[in-house]
Amino acid sequence: MSDAEVLFERRGAIGLVTLNRPKALNALTLGMVRAMTPQLKAWAEDVHVKAVVVRSTGERGFCAGGDIRALYKSGIAKDSYATEFWGEEYQLNTLIKEYPKPYVALTQGVVMGGGVGLSVHGTHRVACETTMLAMPESGIGLFPDVGGTYFLPRLAGRVGLYLALTGARLKAADLRFLGISTHIAAYADFDAIVDALAASGDVDAVLRPYAEPVADAPIAAITHDIDAHFGGASVEEVVASLAADPGEWAQAQAAIIRSKSPTSLKIAFRQMQEGRLLPFRDCMRLEFRITQQIQKGVDFYEGVRATIIEKDGAPKWSPATLEEVKPWMIDAYFAPLAHEWSADDF
């Protein structure tokens, strides 16, 4: 197989995209984004392509997110890579969301951050027995982006806020229950699914016999607790509600939230409030604003240092507590930019 980071193939009735960085869990780079966007646009215009299929090499991960080390180094160096990456990644997310043909994501293993952006906005989202999706960005001083502003607050009840604040991990049954995935199929069948799609291009007809029955979803058992505790008017109220509940689950969630960046938590909370009322492109514009302020701050670099670079697991957030993060501080992350993001700019 080629050593290119992303591979493209016109196979019968489909355009096939294969993410090809298995040793890095197919983490997304700017080069991959810049390769995918024009190819997807070309296939959108190709009458012979009936659908696009996105999959990845290696069993451990569909895509573990953006290449965080590259973004970290860019911020430290104060060069343009991070800004270009986020701007162009969000353009690709928008292209996927608005794609005029069926877009099928076959996901296995880790699906986080940028991997969510490459899959969740497609028309057909196929999980398998190993799929594990999460948006844990607040743990490294970021926020649930790649369209999280749009799709998370549109989940039932307060589940979106729960996922945004805790970074909770979801398996296939949970994803199907929440509607984040449209199908569950066996990973061993992915090759056969690709071949069948290439032969016919009729996505719904091909996926139907491979789709597995919906199993009991663990998250279904806690949706009442999620709605009860995550309905507060602030992150502080959410934490207080959890802390007042002596149950093991509630205490665990309170501890998880307290470990995250206070600034990121308050950004995520406001995202969920504003995002439920905004169309997709406005959500992406909002996310780009936040990235530009994140690069000027402290917590992203500290979170990456503690989690990925030095791995001491002891980030020193600044501000250090939720109470110290004032409303005017969060306002700055949501303020318009001199040059706003547009899906057509990059």
Structural account:
- The protein is α/β, with parallel strands linked by helices.
- The protein has a single domain, classed as 2-enoyl-CoA Hydratase, Chain A, domain 1.
- The chain has 16 helices and nine strands.
- The chain has helices at 30-45, 68-77, 81-97, 114-119, 148-151, 159-166, 172-178, 190-200, 203-207, 223-229, 235-243, 248-259, 262-275, 280-294, 299-309, 327-334; strands at 6-11, 14-19, 51-56, 61-63, 103-106, 110-112, 124-127, 132-134, 183-184.
- The chain has a six-stranded mixed beta sheet with strand order 1-2-3-5-7-9, sandwiched between helices. The chain has a three-stranded parallel beta sheet with strand order 4-6-8.
- α1 (30-45) runs parallel beside α3 (81-97), α3 runs antiparallel to α14 (280-294) and α6 runs antiparallel to α13.
- The longest helix has 17 residues, at 81-97.
- The two termini are 30 Å apart.
- The model has no long low-confidence stretch (mean pLDDT 97).
Distance between the termini: 30 Å
- Roughly what percent helix? 40-55%
Number of strands: 9
- DSSP strand (E) fraction? 5-15%
Provide a count of the helices.
16
Give the low-confidence spans: none
CATH class call? Alpha Beta
User: From the helix content, strand content and strand pairing, which structural class follows?
Assistant: alpha/beta
Number of domains: 1
Strand order of the largest sheet: 1-2-3-5-7-9
- Principal-axis shape: globular
**Biggest beta sheet summary:** 6 strands, mixed
Q: What do we call the CATH topology?
A: 2-enoyl-CoA Hydratase, Chain A, domain 1
Mean pLDDT: 97
